[in-house]
Design brief:
Order of helices and strands: EHHEHEHEHEEHEHEHEEEHEH
CATH architecture of the largest domain: 3-Layer(aba) Sandwich
Helix content: 25-40%
Radius of gyration: 20 Å
Strand order of the largest sheet: 8-7-6-11-9-12-10
CATH superfamily of the largest domain: SPOUT methyltransferase, trefoil knot domain
Number of strands: 12
Number of domains: 2
Length: 267
């Protein structure tokens, strides 16, 4: 039976609200996700929140009822609250009617099974939550195994990043590593590392990509460092016919991912 919380001073409310800060997420090992669609997709992927908060006006929705039943059945807690408290928790003036508190999972490379997919995406020093969300959604669309975040990237468990993924955070594997660690792991098994670069001589549609293909995308402003480019098995370029000299990082990733997918489909 869900309990009710209507006070800002409630200990759990304060604890959950603190998860908007990275330091507290790391201390607790928990993160926030909001919205019935995202929480439903997470449940379909096998992820249930430890706490689910919902408003009275959203309580009668069939998917909310199903979610509450599943959370309580798994030993979690369902909490009915006010919309203004959800606003405090999410940091949005117009919050969703449902919010979940999830346990973070293992993001080490040792948890990645490269044989699970023929396509993987690797992002180096990616900083924008919106780009991370778009890349994860692209990965889901092309059937990629997941996203490996290299060096200092945006926190994938931040409220903004989780919101931008629209549920893809729960369908794509996430791993984090420093570059030397990633390169050592990559070379310990099969995998072709493909980087996009303005100094590449080959068009991105020229090569026949080998499986599994690891698509490497660089920082939004700086691109890939030269030594990272040198470590790639192939460097390719996407044609730019206008005045712009490069694409947005997430767009370039999507172009590459669909080229690799299309090659797999036509073989």
């Amino acid at each position: 039976m869900p309990r009710q919380i209507t006070a800002y001073s409630n200990t759990l409310v304060k604890r959950v609200r603190s998860l908007r800060e990275k330091r507290h997420r790391r201390e607790e090992g928990l993160f926030l996700a909001e919205g019935l669609r995202i929480l439903t997709e997470a449940a379909d992927a096998g992820f249930l929140p430890e706490y689910v908060f919902f408003t009275r006006d959203g309580a009668d929705h069939p998917l909310t009822k199903k979610l509450v039943f599943a959370v309580e059945g798994a030993g979690g807690e369902a909490i009915e609250t006010e919309r203004d408290i959800l606003s405090k928790l999410s940091g949005k003036d117009n919050p969703q009617t449902v919010l979940g508190v999830y346990r973070e999972w293992d993001t080490s490379l040792s948890a990645v099974d490269r044989s699970a997919s023929n396509i993987w995406i690797v992002a180096q020093s990616l900083r924008d939550p919106g780009n991370l969300g778009t890349i994860l959604r692209t990965g889901d669309a092309v059937g990629a195994g997941g996203l490996i975040l290299v060096d200092d990237c945006v926190d994938p468990f931040s409220v903004e990043a989780v919101r931008a993924t629209m549920g893809a955070l729960f369908t794509q594997k996430i791993a984090t590593a420093r570059w030397p660690e990633f390169l050592s792991w990559l070379r310990s098994g099969p995998g072709e590392l493909i980087g996009t670069s303005l100094r590449a001589v080959h068009d991105y549609q020229e090569p026949r990509y080998e499986a599994p293909t690891f698509i490497l995308v660089g920082n939004e402003a700086q691109g890939l460092p030269a030594d990272y480019e040198d470590a790639c098995d192939r460097l390719v370029k996407i044609p730019m016919l206008g005045k712009a000299d490069s694409l947005n990082a997430a767009v370039a990733t999507a172009v590459m991912a669909y080229e690799v997918l299309n090659q797999r489909r036509t073989r």
